[in-house]
Amino acid sequence: MLRKQAEIATDHAAFEAFYRRHVDAVTRFLARRVDDPHTVADMVAEVFMAVLNSAHTYRAEQGTELAWLYGVARNRVSTERRRSFKEWRLASRMSGRRPLDSDDIAKLEERIDAEQPARRLFTAMAGLPKGERAVLELVVIDQLTVTEAAVALGIQPGAAKVRLHRARRRLRGLPFVLEGTLG
Amino acid sequence: MSFEEQILMQMKAEITARANRRRIGRRLLTGAAVAGLAAAATIAMPLLTGSEQAAYAVTRNTDGTINVKLNEFRDADKLEQDLKKMGVSADITYLKSGKACQGNRGDIVGGASPEEWEGSASAKAVRLLPHGGGLEIDPRYVGNGQTLVMMLTENKDRVFGSERSGTQWQLPTYVVNGQVKPCVVVDDPLWNDVDGSGGPPAGS
Questions:
Q1: Where is the RNA polymerase sigma factor 70 region 4 type domain positioned along the sequence (chain A) (predicted)?
Q2: For A17-52, how does the pLDDT look when each residue is reduced to its tens digit (9 = 90+)?
Q3: Which of A70, B88, B149, B187 could be disulfide-bonded to A152 (CB atoms 3.0-4.6 Å)?
């Protein structure tokens, strides 16, 4: 697996297989967090670009591909939020924003719409401490196991469990069914 | 094309670009570990057109380095003699597209591993000058009993970089300790891999 992860950054066929396996999940992951089709498409590209940079950090024994990928995607999202709007626009223009046709936009908007409940959950979680919210997001919204969420966040599984437990306790009483797979 | 396909293409282009930046190491690894091929730095360079001029021009810079400006790939023997007069023992071979010299042509300085290659005389002896300025050879990296081996390969079907078009060339080059084996011309097994894609071009 380790070798395969190195290959995804160097071999077209290996990368393509990896990309096709996960591009949909990554798009949905981002559509839960961003509601503009162009930005979602740009960020999908950025996540996979970051995959090329981070392929060497993947360790098979620590979790699934998807957990690792969500970790990469999360980092991209938070980098994005730190970047000012102006800078983002400039960077997009410089790299040549990919033209989205109407089918692309329709598809992306559909995904963004489908993820609306998730975005509402984010709002509900906004008051939680950052660390707890991160675990809860990945488990409840992105459907990772606790162990996978720990991989995505680069923390110990035990710490993730504690944070999840605290977050659930704080959110008790919210009118949302907070379900996730424990593992 | 859907945005997913566009992104995939963009990523593949990026992988290719990164592979080209890693070429020296890759060639070494492939060469040493797999096929016993020449360990070589591959530099793309444009060939200037205009056949009225001499095949090449050699000048010495004040810092002791030597500039070689190639106009046409002929008179390799004469260029070797001129370089010899300037203190560099060189072995120059001109090759057609898709051809390479078979195997390593001697005991390559820095040829044991990519780590050793980085910073070795082989990696430093020849530098490609920007803007079609030709090559710069640094005689300090070619010691007594050593030979600078340069294999210049015509690469008509590839364009390196967006700012240059026209005929491009590859220049595998390294420094060899002691005797240099003559070039046995073979089909270059890595030729189709020149863009780092690891396979034939799309659609083929």
A1: 120-171
A2: 989 999 999 999 988 888 788 888 888 888 888 888
A3: A70
Task: Tell which of B10, B11, B193, B195 to mutate to test the A interface (max A CBs under 10 Å).
Answer: B11
CB contacts of B4 in chain A (<8 Å) are 23, 27, 44
Architecture of domain A1-114: Orthogonal Bundle (1.10)
Chain B partners within 8 Å of A22 (Cβ): none
The answer to whether the CB of A153 falls within 8 A of the CB of A71 is: yes
CA distance A53 to A71: 13
Class of domain A116-183: mainly alpha
Token digits of residue B150: 């340069």
The answer to whether the beta carbons of residues B173 and B146 sit under 8 Å apart is no
Residues of chain B where predicted confidence (pLDDT) is lower than 70:
20-53, 113-115, 118, 129-133, 154-171, 189-204
Domain locations in chain A? 1-114, 116-183
B187 backbone dihedrals φ, ψ, rounded to 5°: -65, 135
Q: How far is A142 from chain B (nearest CA, A)?
A: 21
The amino acid sitting at A119 is: R
Give the model confidence (pLDDT) of B66-123 as tens digits. Answer: 998 877 777 889 999 999 999 999 999 888 877 878 877 888 888 776 667 767 888 7
